[in-house]
Write a structure and sequence with these properties.
The chain has about 400 residues and is of the alpha/beta class. The protein has 2 domains: about 280 residues, Rossmann fold (3-Layer(aba) Sandwich); about 90 residues, Orthogonal Bundle (Tyrosyl-Transfer RNA Synthetase). It contains 15 helices and 6 strands. The longest helix is centred in the C-terminal third of the chain and has 29 residues. It is globular, with a radius of gyration of 22 Å. The protein starts with a strand and ends in a 6-residue tail after the last helix.
Length: about 400
């Protein structure tokens, strides 16, 4: 998420039913996902094939990922995470949630959170997330997330949390006197989000690697303190309580940078809206942002020059929304001026985002249908999460009803 993006990958079986709606399945309005774009975003050090080699063909990998409803979903959220989900949901057991509990770690507006939560869910579906293939739910609708967080917090040394880089940065900006406890304990809730679903792999951005390490350490700590023979003596199955997840780091191409600073990630929290393309931006806003975006004075356009971060970022965006390969973009754009390239990029962005915007309006016009998707998704997610939670309660010695 910066902290606005939480991406998690899990492996398990699922036979839960899915909610179906013709309004949410109209294929003509979903943008085509090109294989070149997907490969660029998802070619990772831990390959999917290597993970599944020893698994029966009937076992599907479980993938869990989410975005905070703290502002409009922008191009970085979409190209860095959501666009990948469309491919993953066809092969895996996918759970995609709206991370609303994480959205209150800093001062927020309650009416805005309510609206943004529903908007985010609608955008998931508008981007192509299919509720007949994926479970879509709101984090706060599954109480196990908070319950497990409390149990994990009892085993989390305060020193671990004090070392979190994002806590230091956020608390310094907000002023130590104004920082709530939730900002400090945020990584424990993230660990709960992950461990509830017994993951094998967790795809995380560079800014979330430290939080995943905390999750791994917590899983190992709980397993050591309460698992194995100790758990079996209490009537449990024994063995580890949690599976210790492995990281899956997206390549650099999945990290979309700011339009005003090619060295900073595109972010909802950036003070200037000029720094990002929001998925619901109208055509004139997109054109204006691209026209005014930061570039350089060098001739020609090129990828991967560390001295030209803005050039690399804009070319990468064009590659991903056009569906072209890196080589195709290089050949097309290497001799272009910025004056020629910016209209090309603008047209590609508008063409790619327009179907999403049309579909979003359709989904928002059928609020009851969206509510049913979220209710069904929360029920399916709770079935998995509660099974893990009951094991943890048992292993930690709680008397159950």
């Amino acid at each position: 998420m910066g902290r606005s993006l939480l991406s998690q990958l899990f492996i398990l079986n699922s036979t839960a039913p899915r909610f179906s709606s013709s309004v949410l399945r109209r294929p003509g309005l979903i943008p085509q996902i090109h294989s070149q774009s997907f490969q660029c975003l998802c070619s990772t050090p831990i390959s999917e094939s290597s993970v599944s080699e020893n698994l029966p063909s009937s076992v599907k990998k479980r993938i869990v990922s989410g975005v905070q409803p703290t502002g409009s979903i922008h191009l970085g959220n979409y190209l860095g995470a959501i666009k990948n989900w469309i491919q993953l949901q066809d092969k895996h057991d996918t759970f995609f949630f709206i991370v609303d509990l994480h959205a209150i770690t800093l001062p927020y507006d309650a009416p805005h959170l309510l609206k943004a939560t529903k908007d985010t869910a609608a955008l998931y579906l508008a981007c192509g997330v299919d509720p007949t293939k994926a479970t879509v739910f709101v984090q706060s609708h599954v109480a196990a997330h908070v319950e497990l967080m409390w149990l994990l917090s009892a085993a989390t040394p305060i020193g671990w949390l004090n070392k979190m880089i994002q806590f230091k940065e956020k608390s310094r900006k907000a002023g130590d006197e104004n920082v709530g406890v939730a900002l400090l304990t945020y990584p424990v809730l993230m660990a709960s989000d992950i461990l509830l679903y017994q993951p094998d792999l967790v795809p995380v951005g560079e800014d979330q690697k430290q939080h995943l390490e905390l999750t791994r350490e917590l899983a190992e700590r709980i397993n050591y303190l309460y698992g194995g023979k100790k758990w079996k003596k209490l009537g449990g199955r024994g063995g580890p309580i949690f599976k210790v997840p492995e990281p899956l780091i997206p390549p650099a191409g999945a990290r979309i940078m700011s339009l005003t600073d090619g060295l900073s990630k595109m972010s909802k929290s950036a003070p200037s809206d000029q720094s990002r393309i929001n998925l619901l931006d109208p055509k004139d806003a997109i054109a204006n942002k691209i026209k005014r975006c930061k570039t350089d004075s060098l001739s020609g356009l090129e990828f991967d020059n560390p001295d030209r971060p803005e050039c690399n970022n804009l070319l990468s965006i064009y590659q991903l929304v056009s569906g072209k390969t890196k080589q195709e973009v290089t050949e097309e754009c290497q001799n272009m001026s910025w004056g020629a390239f910016k209209p090309l990029l603008t047209d590609a962005l508008i063409a790619h985002l327009h179907p999403i915007q049309v579909r979003y309006e359709e989904i928002m016009s059928d609020s009851d249908c969206l509510d049913k998707v979220l209710a069904e998704g929360a029920m399916n997610a709770a079935n998995v999460a509660n099974a893990t939670l009951q094991n943890v309660y048992q292993a930690m010695g709680f008397m159950r009803r």
